[in-house]
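Sequence, please.
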C-alpha cells in the first residue's frame, strides 16, 4: 500500500513543473464539496509535466489519479491514497481553424469549415463558453452554467438542452496508456448519450483527455448572451445552484419512457434526506449537499433511490457521478 511518506519522497525527487500540496482536502475541489484528503495533490502546469509524473509514478508503483473540475465526482470520506493530479493549471485556450484541425487528421472536414477553438482540459466550461461568446462564435451556449472543466465535459460527453459536446468536437488530444500524447478525430458512432471512447470498456479507456478542438459557427454576441442568460435562469429555477451538487445524478434512459427525475418524483424522492445528503425539493434527479453531507450519506441516498426504482419498476438507474477513493 502506498504511504504518505513514500509519496512525499517520490515527489521530492521528481523535477517537474507543478504545484504540490500534501494532505490536501479534496472537498473544495469538487462541486459536491464532499470528500477527504489526498496524500498529495499535484497541479501540473503542462502536458509534459503531467505525462512525466504519471509515467514515473507508474514505474515506481505509486497510485495516481487525474481529476479536472470535479463536477461529477464523489470522493470518499477517507480521501484518496497516493497522488491526485488536477488539470486546473492547464489553461491553453485559443482560436483555431476548425477546417485545419479536421484536415490534419485526414478527417471529413467539409462540415467542419469555419471558426473553431482549442481548449485544454483544465479550462472551465464557463470560461470556454464565455470565450466563444466574446468572439461571436455560436454553438456552445447550451453549456452556459455547466460546472466543471473541458476535460471532464469531453470525457462524459456532457449534454443538456438537447445538445452535447460531441456535436461540436473536431478532435480530442489525449495521453494514451503509455503516457504518449496523441490526437483522435471524432467518429460519431463512438460518441452517444453520456458515452465516449474514453470510458471504461471503450477503445481509449485509460487514456487521459488533454484538450479538445471545437467547430463553431458565426453568431451574434448579443443573441448568444441572451440565450445563455435564459438557460442559466432555467438551471436556477430547477435548483442547480441552490446547494453544492453534481447536477443530474442519474443518466436518463429512453427505454424507461420518462426522465430519471420524473421517475424519482413519482416515488416521492423530492426532499428525501440521509443526513445532509438531500434530493433537491425542486428536481428529483439533483442530489445536493445541504450542509455537511458525508460521502457515505450521499452514497446511501443514491442506493436508496436505485433500490426504490428497481423495486417499483424493474429499472436500473445508472449514476453519472464517478467515485474516487474507497467506499
Amino acid at each position: 500500500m502506498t504511504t504518505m511518506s513514500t509519496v512525499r519522497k517520490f515527489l521530492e525527487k521528481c523535477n517537474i513543473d507543478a504545484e504540490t500540496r500534501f494532505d490536501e482536502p479534496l472537498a473544495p475541489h469538487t462541486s459536491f464539496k464532499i470528500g477527504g484528503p489526498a496524500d498529495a495533490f499535484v497541479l501540473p502546469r503542462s502536458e509534459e509535466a503531467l505525462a512525466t509524473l504519471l509515467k514515473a509514478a507508474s514505474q515506481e508503483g505509486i497510485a495516481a489519479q487525474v481529476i479536472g473540475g470535479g463536477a461529477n465526482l464523489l470522493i470518499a470520506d477517507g480521501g484518496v491514497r497516493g497522488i491526485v493530479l488536477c488539470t486546473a493549471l492547464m489553461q491553453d485556450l485559443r482560436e483555431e481553424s476548425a477546417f485545419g484541425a479536421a484536415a490534419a487528421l485526414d478527417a471529413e472536414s467539409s462540415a467542419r469549415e469555419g471558426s473553431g477553438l482549442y481548449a485544454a482540459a483544465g479550462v472551465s466550461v464557463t470560461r470556454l463558453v464565455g470565450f466563444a461568446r466574446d468572439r461571436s462564435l455560436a454553438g456552445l451556449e447550451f453549456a452556459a452554467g455547466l460546472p466543471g472543466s473541458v476535460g471532464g465535459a469531453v470525457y462524459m460527453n456532457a449534454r443538456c438542452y438537447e445538445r452535447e459536446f460531441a456535436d461540436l468536437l473536431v478532435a480530442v488530444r489525449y495521453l494514451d496508456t503509455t503516457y504518449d500524447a496523441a490526437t483522435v478525430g471524432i467518429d460519431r458512432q463512438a460518441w452517444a448519450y453520456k458515452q465516449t471512447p474514453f470510458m471504461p470498456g471503450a477503445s481509449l479507456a485509460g487514456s487521459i483527455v488533454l484538450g479538445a478542438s471545437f467547430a463553431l459557427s458565426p453568431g451574434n454576441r448579443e443573441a448568444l448572451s441572451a440565450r445563455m442568460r435564459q438557460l442559466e435562469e432555467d438551471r436556477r429555477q430547477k435548483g442547480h445552484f441552490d446547494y453544492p451538487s453534481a447536477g443530474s445524478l442519474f443518466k436518463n434512459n429512453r427505454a424507461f419512457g420518462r426522465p430519471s427525475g420524473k421517475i424519482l418524483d413519482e416515488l416521492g424522492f423530492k426532499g428525501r434526506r440521509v443526513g445532509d445528503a438531500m434530493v433537491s425539493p425542486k428536481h428529483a434527479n439533483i442530489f445536493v449537499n445541504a450542509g455537511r453531507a458525508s460521502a457515505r450519506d450521499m452514497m446511501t441516498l443514491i442506493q436508496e433511490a436505485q433500490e426504490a426504482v428497481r423495486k417499483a419498476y424493474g429499472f436500473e438507474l445508472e449514476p453519472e457521478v464517478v467515485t474516487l477513493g474507497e467506499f
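The chain has a mean pLDDT of 93.
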